Every structure is written in C-alpha cells, then in structure tokens.
Amino acid sequence: MLPQLFNPGLGRLIGAGLLACSIVTLGACSQSEDPAGQKQLEERSGEQSPEQLSGTTAEKSSKAEKAAPESGVDYHSFANTNDYRVKHLDLDLTADFDNKILKGTAILDIKRVGEKNPPLILDTRELDIKAVRAGLGDDLKPVKFSLGETDPNLGTPLEIELPKGANKVAIDYQTSPGASGVQWLEPEQTAGKKHPFLFTQAQAIHARSFIPLQDSPQVRMTYAATIRTPDDLLAVMSANNDPETEKDGVYEFEMPQPIPSYLIAIGIGNLEFKPMGERTGVYAEPELLDAAAAEFEDTEDMLEVTEENYGPYRWDRYDLLILPPSFPFGGMENPRLSFITPTVIAGDKSLVALIAHELAHSWSGNLVTNSSWRDLWLNEGFTTYLTNRIMQFVYGDERYKMEMALGYDDLQADLADRPDKDEILAIDMRGRDPDEVFSNIPYEKGSLFLYELEQKVGRENFDQFLMDYFNKFAFQSVNTEDFVNYLDDTLLKQYPDKLSKERINEWIFEPGIPEGAPHPQSDAFTKLDPIREQWLNGEIEAGDIDTEGWTFHQWKYFLDGMPEKLSDDQLQELDETFSLTDSKNNEIAFSWLMIAVRNDYEPANARLEDFLTSIGRNKFLRPLYGNMVESGKQEEAKRIFEKAKSGYHPLTVKVNSKIIYGD
Ligand SMILES: CC/C=C\C/C=C\C[C@@H](O)/C=C/C=C/C=C\[C@@H](O)CCCC(=O)O
Ligand SMILES: [Zn+2]
Question: What segment(s) does the record annotate as region Disordered (predicted)?
C-alpha cells in the first residue's frame, strides 16, 4: 500500500477548487510614438532569431558563446544601465483588492554611470503612469515622460527626461488588474475561504508589471517599502519581516542588502506566524500553519549545515511564506522569505528538498546572481547541486542518492524534449519569453557539471572552492564568462591534470551531456527495476510486490519507469492495489496521472480534472496538458483549462494556453 500521506489542511485546499477569480483582460497602456523605445527594442530582441542560431554543433556552440551580452546589456530589459544605475527603491503601495490594483509611488535613487546625460529608460509592463518627478535630493519637480512601443515579451519602455544632475526619480503609478507578476485571489481560492490573498512573482521579468524600474538582474538595489492593506490582512515582503507584527493595515519594510529586481516580492493575506527555530519560521493562513511548521521543521538544521559548509548566512532571518495552491512554482527564493507552494506539505517530509533548494539560493542566486537570464544556470545549477548536498547532510546518503537520481531522470526527459540549442547551459534567449524557455536543463545539467567537478577535484576541495566563490562574488551579479574566468584562476590552475578547458566549454556551450559524465544512481531504485519488469511480464501480481517502507522517491521511480503503454487490466491492477488515483502525495498523483492520460485510463479522469483545477503549479500543469494534447485529448484539455483558467496565475495561463491552443 501507499504510505499514508494525507494532510487534512492540504486535502481541504485541493478539494475546494480554485474558481471565482477572474483574470481581467490586460488593459491598454497609454503610449506614444517613440523611436527611442523602438531602437532599444531592436537592440535587445532582434539580432538573431532562434532559427538563425541553428546549424552544426560546433557552429551552434560558437554562436552561443557569441551570444554573451556585452557588459551592461541585458536582452530582456530596456533599461539603459550603462548610463544610470538604480541604487535604492522607496516604495509606497496600497493594495486595492476590490479593483485588483496596486497603486502608489516608487522613488528611485539613481547614479549616473555614463559620461552623457540621456533620458532614463525604465522597464514597465501594463503600468498606468500618472506622473513623474525628478531632481536632486528631495527637490523633485515634474518632468516629461513617454511610454515607448510595447514588445510582447519585454513590456513597454518608460523614457524619463532628467534635469542635469538629478539623482532621484519619483513615479506615481498603478498596476493593471492583469499584471503578469501579481495574482489576486478570491477568498474561495484560499485555505480559510474568508479573506482575499495577493502574491507577486517577479522572476524572470515580471517585477516591471508592478514596479517601474531597471528590471535586470545586473542591477542591485536596496529597498524600503510601505504596504497598505485592508486592516485584517498581513503584508510580508522579501525583507525584514518582524514575527511580532500585529495586523493593522500598514506595514513597513527594509531590505538593507542590495538585491536584483526579480527578488522583490510581496505577499498579503490572512497570515499568521509560527517559529520553527531561532532564525526560521513560517507565515501561513491559520488553517495551514501547524502542518507547514511540522513539515518544514528541519529548516533551521538545513540553514546551519549550509553555513558550516558554504559560509555565513548573510540575510538575518530565513522564513517561509505558504501560498495558496495557484502559486505557479514549487517555491521562489525571495530573500529572507521564500514563497512556497502548499502542494509540498505531504505529511511525511518527502518533498522538503524544495525547502533545501530555496534556502540554498541564499548563497547561489541571491548572494551571487546571474547577470542575465542567459546565465540562469549559475543560479539554478549551483542551487540544485547545493540542494542535494543539504539533503545529504540532513537526511543521509540514501536520500541524497535518490534525489540525485531523480534529478538525472528529469534531465534526460527534458533533453529528449528540447531542441539542441536549448540544451546549452549558456542559452541564447534573445527574442524569447523566458517563461516559455524555462526547463530543468539549467538546474540539472548545471548541477551535474558541478558534480563532475566535485568528483574530479575531491569533495573537500570543491566545497572550499564554492565557499570562496560565494565570498568573492557576494552581492554581485556574474555571467558565465566571469565564472569560467574564475575557474581558470582557481581549479584549472590547481588541478591541470584533472580538469581541462575543453571539457568545461563542452559542458557550458555544447548541447546534451558530455560523454563520460557521471550518472547518479541509487540502489534503492535499481532494485525496483527487476520487480517492475516481472510485473510487466506477468510473472508476479501487483499485490505480490512488497512496497512496505517504500519512500515517495521509490514510488516516483517505479511509476516514471513504466513503459509508454499499459493495458487496461494493468492500469486497473496498479490502481486497485496501490490506490494511485487517490494518492494524496501530489508528486505521486502527478506521475500516475501522466500514465493515466497517455493510456486513456478513464477511472482517473475525475482526479485529473480536480488536480488541474485545484493546483496551479506549472511543473505539473505543463506536462499534463501537453500529454493530453499529444494523446488526442485536446478538446478535454480545452474544457478543463477554460474551467480552471480564472483561478490560474497569469503566467500559468500564458504558457499553458500556448500548449493547448498553439500560437
Ligand atoms: C533557460 C530559461 C532561462 C531563464 C528563465 C528564467 C526564469 C523563467 C521563469 O519562468 C521563472 C521561473 C521561476 C522559478 C522559480 C522557482 C523554480 O525553482 C521552480 C521550479 C519548478 C517547480 O518546482 O515548481
Ligand atoms: Zn531555484
């Protein structure tokens, strides 16, 4: 039998569905004919289409190398960061739940870094800009501004004429109800069903949909914020949340460490706090608070082992915010306060690698940051490597091996699915929407590359290397070339007989996995292969399989290793013996539903519909909808998607409607 993984709080959430919230059609933003904006756009998105980047492997990789943006250039931002840099943001926003808008003022402290005095160009998306003032210090006067042409991926540049010597710009604005980085939830979509909820998700290029700024990970700023909410709701941010704060509708925050814009985050809801350790705690709706605190109680241990091995935690507190199930990701590493899907509260800590992952970003990603989305692997590959190590420190070798092996299988699956050009770590993303290119490749291939380095130079030496890397580049944004140069100066010099530049380039600039790369495996998994085989061959019945003590990881491995096609009898036997359709572990349910969809297993249809309408996590939705379309169930996919869509996050709607309806 399946282990009993049911969690009452989550059960209520899942059962409730996600209806009643309507995603309002994106409103038009006032625009002017603006040649400057158009030029920015051409410079950023037009040089080479992805198709132009195809060719032989050698050509491809050399073109990928050339795609390294010049210093100060980010193909996913209009901002003229070679002229000005935003250093600090002061935000004062009111959350208007009735109209689904954030309204207020952003004051940017800017530093001129170029020789000239051109207009300041900021990123925006669907923002209604009411007025702009600029000047020196607090002497701000109204200035001219214009919105340029809108690019479907990048949004709309905001051009501001600055008086000479200006170092401050104040922008009065409001967001659109359909802002791509904000989800407004109706009470029905929450655990408590009585209060609305709001959360933002800025990565990769959605901060611009709720704050006008230089929305590029090359730019780091400190921030202070006042967030005004209805009196009975609590606001939290990726900043200095005070666990003692009482609900009163006005909340002040400070983020004293410089962070990139994609890490600015706001959550508002009927939230309460529960401590888990000295520096760690959880914010959640009261209905979920105890379950979340119990599930994630090892967070403090994770924090301590990571510090011991990779250097100090530099962000003061580390708390978790548990979001409603429409959150489009497993977690988001917002500094000091990771945003977490409730779908990982399984009741048995089986899915807590996600917490290790978000915590690890406090070193890889938040401290040392990819300087453009081309270099995402520097954030995610390092973080995935650290995640595995944290899981080993806290839960031991067997868990480590299983997590690694599952990651390797995820990588294989994505490699089988993607064009060569998207298998390159330093990926060419020009002209593309980062949300649509997103895959496991930067995570798992990046991590496997680091694992190979570890194997070659020895674990202790590699840990030292990582600690030094985090210290050297702390609070800086780096690109692939910075990392390669650092490798040149360190490990390549220290271990010339063990490492080579060619091999490193192959990992970073060539598609696929280099020949001879490590292949993480787990005995706890390989022993399941003959059992699965025997069952498939009819030599044993499902009831003969001794599943006592199987971990979630083993169930996932067992199910994911099933062949494409199973007979109706086989599906029924599996389901009746192991109650798979009713599994309360969302990862197991997902693996089973993937099998059910591709084999037209009707008894799982109701669960499939419930799953797709109650969870908004793209990791599950994209493959499930994709599988439905591929197996001829496009109409059913459309029906369910239309029913669920009003409760999905804007990003979820966008990427899945492409899958279901095509372009
Ligand atoms: C190769 C793609 C390059 C850049 C894309 C960057 C961001 C894309 C965007 O869609 C945002 C992603 C945010 C991810 C946040 C957390 C992930 O670690 C979650 C992974 C999936 C999950 O567990 O649900
Ligand atoms: Zn991550």
Answer: 33-74
Q: Between the CA of residue 240 and those of 8, 247, 334, 485, 633, what are the distances in Å?
A: 31, 16, 12, 35, 48
Instruction: List the domain boundaries for the chain.
Output: 35-270, 271-521, 522-661
Return the CATH number of the domain spanning residue range 271-521: 1.10.390.10
Q: How far does residue 315's CA lie from ligand 2's centre (Å)?
A: 17
Reading the block at residue 136, the tokens are 């020196």
Rounded distance from Cα 131 to ligand 2 centre (Å) = 37
Torsion angle of C-alpha atoms 645, 647, 649, 654, degrees rounded to 10: 0
User: Which amino acid residue places its CA nearest to atom 13 of ligand 1?
Assistant: 203
Residues lining ligand 1, Cβ inside 6 A: 203-204, 329-332, 373, 376, 427, 429, 434-435, 437-438, 442, 617, 619
E-strand ranges in 328-378 read 331-332, 337-340, 368-370
Closest atom of ligand 1 to CA, residue 651: 10
**φ/ψ of residue 231, rounded to 5:** -55, -30
pLDDT at 400 over 70: yes
* Domain 522-661 belongs in CATH node 1.25.40.320: yes
Give the burial class of 334: count Cβ atoms within 10 A of its Cβ; 0-12 exposed, 13-18 middle, 19 or more buried: buried
Shortest-distance atom of ligand 1 to CA 437: 2
How many whole angstroms from 543 Cα to the centroid of ligand 1?
39
Minimal-distance CA residue to ligand 1 atom 12: 203
Residue 633 CA to ligand 1 center (angstroms) comes to 27
Complex confidence, ipTM:
0.97
The ligand 1 atom at the shortest distance from the C-alpha of residue 655 is 10
> How confident is the model at residue 160, as a pLDDT?
98
Residue 42 in this model has a pLDDT that exceeds 70: no
**pLDDT of amino acid 73:** 79
**pLDDT digits 0-9 by tens, 376-392:** 999 999 999 999 999 99
> For residue 512, which phi and psi values (nearest 5 degrees)?
75, -170
Q: Which ligand is nearest to the CA of 364?
A: 2
Q: How confident is the model at residue 17 (pLDDT cuts 50, 70, 90)?
A: very low
The answer, yes or no, to whether residue 30 has pLDDT greater than 50, is no
Element (H, E) at 254: strand 250-260
Closest CA to 363 of 291, 466, 464: 466
The band of 114, judged by pLDDT with boundaries at 50, 70 and 90, is: confident
> CATH class for domain 35-270?
mainly beta
pLDDT for the residue 71: 64
Mutate to test the pocket of ligand 1, among 203, 376, 443, 651 (most ligand atoms within 8 A of CB): 203
Residue 331 Cα, ligand 1 centroid: separation in angstroms?
Answer: 9
Size of the chain, expressed as the number of residues it contains: 663
Q: Give the span between the Cα atoms of 352 and 561, in whole angstroms.
A: 23
564 a catalytic residue = no
- 59 among known catalytic residues: no
**Predicted confidence (pLDDT) per residue in 69-99, tens digit:** 666 679 999 999 999 999 999 999 999 999 9
| pLDDT at residue 56 tops 60 | no
pLDDT tens track for 570-595:
999 999 999 999 999 999 999 999 99
The ligand whose atoms approach the alpha carbon of 649 most closely is 1
Which of the residues 126, 285, 295, 358 is marked catalytic?
358
The residue written with tokens 């704060």 in the block is 245
Q: Which of 283, 443, 451, 469 is catalytic?
A: 443
Tokens representing 64 are 């990928």
